[in-house]
TrEMBL record, chain A:
Protein's gene: cfbC
Annotated PANTHER family: LIGHT-INDEPENDENT PROTOCHLOROPHYLLIDE REDUCTASE IRON-SULFUR ATP-BINDING PROTEIN
Lineage: Archaea, Methanobacteriati, Methanobacteriota, Stenosarchaea group, Methanomicrobia
GO terms for MF: 4 iron, 4 sulfur cluster binding; ATP binding; metal ion binding; oxidoreductase activity
Keyword annotations from UniProtKB, A to Z: 4Fe-4S, ATP-binding, Iron, Iron-sulfur, Metal-binding, Nucleotide-binding, Oxidoreductase
Names of the cofactor(s): [4Fe-4S] cluster
Name the record gives this protein: Ni-sirohydrochlorin a,c-diamide reductive cyclase ATP-dependent reductase subunit
InterPro entries: NifH/chlL_CS, NifH/frxC, P-loop_NTPase
Domain of life from the UniProt record: Archaea
NCBIfam families attached to this UniProt entry: F430_CfbC
Protein family membership: Belongs to the NifH/BchL/ChlL family.
Amino acid sequence: MKQIALYGKGGIGKSTTAANLSAALAGEGLDILQIGCDPKHDSTRMLMHGAWIPTVLDLIRERGDASITVDDVVYRGFGGVRCVEAGGPEPGIGCAGRGIIATFQLLERLEALKGDIIIYDVLGDVVCGGFAMPMREGYAQEVYLVTSGELMSLYAANNIAKAITRLSRRARSRCTLGGVICNAKNIEGERDLVEEFARRINSRLIAYVPRDRTVQIAELNRQTVIEYAPESDQAAVYRDLARAIRGNETTSIPTPLEMDELESFALEFVQV
Amino acid sequence: MNSNPSPSNSSRFEGCTLTGALSVLTEVRDAVCIVHGPSGCVHHNFSLLHATLLANDRLEVPRLLSTGLTENDIIFGGEEALEEAIARGLSLSPAPAAVFVLSTCIVETIGDDTEAVCAKARGVPVIAVPTAGFLGGVFETGVKNALSAVASLARPAPAAEKTLSANLVGEKNLEYGVDENAAEIARLLSRLGIGINLRFVRGIGTEDVGRLGSAAVNVLREPALRPVGEDLRRRFNTPYVDSFPAGLAGTRRFLEEAGRVCGIDASAAVEEERAYQAEMLSRFSEIAGSRVCFRSPHPMLETDPDAVAVCTECTEALNLTVDPDGAAIPFPYPAPVGTAGTRRMLHRWSVLIRGKERK
C-alpha cells in the first residue's frame, strides 16, 4: 500500500489535483482511498458528483465515536474511489488540528486505512501538529507539494518542506518529499521557475499541470476532468501525473530555502 | 510572548497557577469555583485543599466543580460545557453568592473565550480568573490573579471611609500555622490600636469583600504580593505594608512601619514589644551558651535569607556558639512570623539542643 499526501497553499488546486489523481489511479484498476483533511470538507466533492458527504467529525459530534462504523464515514465515488472527509469544528472555535488527530485514530480503529493507494489531501498550511498528522507516524511516506510559480505559493511549499525535514528526523516517521507538482497559473517562465525551486529544495518537478478551462467546466458539472472529459488533453495530463506518482521511487529529504534566498530566487525569474 | 520568572528552586516556587488561585478562591466560603478543563485539573487540587482543611481540623469540602472536558470538547470548543457547569454551580444548594471560573492550559490553547461566557448576566457575580500556567504563570501568579478577582467583588471607592483597621492580604492558606501567624499580626497591630478588618482571603463570605476598601492599611503576607498591594491602592486608595514580619528586630520594624502608614506614633508599642521579646527570650535561658550547627532545611530547599537573619539574631541574643559539633538545627522554613513565630522556633531549638545533650 502506498500512502501519499498533497500539501500546498490554500486555493492552489490541491483538491482538484487530488480528485483527478484519484480518478486516474482508479482508472488503472487500483483501490483508492482519498481522505480530505480540511475543515472545509470539499476535497472529495467532485468524486461524489457534488454531494457533501457526512464528515467524520460531524458524526463524532452528533453521535459520539463509539457507534460509528466504516460505512458511516467511507463513501464510494467515481471509479469506486472511497472518499472520507475529516471535517472540523465550527469556524472560530475549538481545535481543528486535534480533530484531524481524532479522525486518524478513528479511521485506524475502524481499519479503514487500506487499499492500493491512500491519498491525503491536507489544508493549505501545516498550521499545527494536527495538520502534520498525515506526515507523522508512518501514514504518508511521500508528500507532494502542489504549487504555482507565485511567490506566496512557493513560500507555502517551502514551509511545508520545513515540516517534512523536521518530521523526517523522527524515528517513527518515514515521511519524505516525493516531488513538486506545478499547478500552473500561466505565468511566464512558470515551469522553469518551479522546476528550479524543486531542484533547490533537493527535489524534482514530477508534473506540470497547465491551466485549462476544462477543469472549471468539469467542476461546474460536478465532476473530475477524468470523468467529464476523459479524452481531453487535461485528462491525459492527470493520467500522466497518476503514472508518475504510482511509479515514483525517488524521494528525498528536502533542504528548504531561507526566506531571503527564496525572495532573491523568485526575483531572478521575474521579468522586469 | 510569556516569560517565566524562574527562581533557582523551581519545584518549590513554581507550580500550578491554578493551584495558587484555588488556594485563595476556595476561602470565599459561599462561592463556587469552576475549573474549566479536564477533570484531573480539579482532582489533584481538590485532594490538596481537602487534605489541608483536614490538617487544620476543618471538616469541610472545597466547593469545586469541573467542566470535565474530554477530547470532543477540545475539538469542537468547550464553551458549552462551561455554560452547563456554571448553571450546575448556580443550582447548588445552598446557592453560591459568587462563582469563580478558572481557566486551564488546554482551554487557553484552543482559545475558549472564558471571559465572554462569564460576562453574561446571571444575577450572581461570575468572575473569570486567568490561571493557565503554560502562559508563564506560577503558583504565585495564581494567588495574585485570584486576589485581584476577589477584589473585583468590592466596588472601587478611592475615597472610601477608612476605619483604623487592617486587611491581611494574601495569607498563605496552604502553609502550616497560617492562623497562628494571623493571630500574631492581630496581636501586634492591637498594640497600635489597629483592628483586623478583613482576612483577604481566608474564611470569608462574598458579602465581607464589600468592606475591603475600609481598612486604613493592607498588610501583605510577603513582598511578592506588592503588585496586589498596588492594585488595592489604586482601587481603594489603601496604603500597604509589604510583608508579615520575620524575627525580633523585624517585628519591631513592622510596628514602626504600620504606625507610620497609619499616622500613629509607634514608639510606645515598640518598647512594649521589646520588653515582651526580652521576657520571651528569658524563658530559653536554659539553652543559652549552647553549641549549635545550622543546616539547610532540606536538600531540595534553598535557605531563605530572612530565615538566616532570624537565626543569626537569636544566636546572638541567646549567646549560642555556632560549631560543627553543635546540635543540628535546620533553618526554619519559611522564616518565623513575629515574636510568636520566633518563640515557636526557639522551642524547637531547645528540644533539639536538649536531645543532643542527652546522647
